[in-house]
Amino acid sequence: MAPLLEVEGVTSGYGKVEVLHDLSISVPEGTVVSLLGPNGAGKTTTLRVISGTLPAWRGQIRFDGHRADGRSPYEIARQGVVLVPEGRGIFPGLNVREHLEIGVRASADGGPAARQARLEGVLEAFPRLRERLSQRAGTLSGGEQQMLALSRAFLAEPRLLLLDEISMGLAPRIVEQLFESVAQLKEQGATIVLVEQYLTYALRLADICYVLAKGRIEFVGEPDELRGGEALASSYLGAG
What we know:
alpha/beta, six-stranded mixed sheet, about 40% helix, about 25% strand, globular, four-stranded antiparallel sheet, 10 helices
């Protein structure tokens, strides 16, 4: 499979603090790639560099064969890269319907009927949102806000979906529901880069795993290699 995303020798960070050191990853089209590692490993920073919200100091990022480093977040998003950030990234003052309309408008124009069908699809996946269409997003529960953030991203029909800790702070049954939706996207052929604290879900969904430690790639392989290697998991992920 040809890579949809290529990150080659990227170095980046915050202020004068270098967080990523000569980082390289490849994301084939139609796959799920999990970025794993302990807190502070550079996983979120990697997603920010890919989405353009943090500049690459050195190295190259190519999306669909074209240079993406140095471009604005808006330009990268217009190419089909959608980030669901840690902390959900919803607009508290907008209601649920307005958020979903943002997602619909961001997608390729398939006409009113196609847009309505996509909207119905996410409301079927998350029926709780249908009950709260006129409710302000800031008054939703944490789980409902994450459902809304995911729904808005799905409606945009991204070519590359970046998911950053979508389970954070949520009850297990809500987490299960969220990942059922992500699994459906995978079945539909979506390309996803996933940062996730729950290894069970990260390994279940992934085709390829990258393990980061202190801003460097320490391991690349298939999920089964991590599932079966207690020493590897303990060394890189802090698992017991």
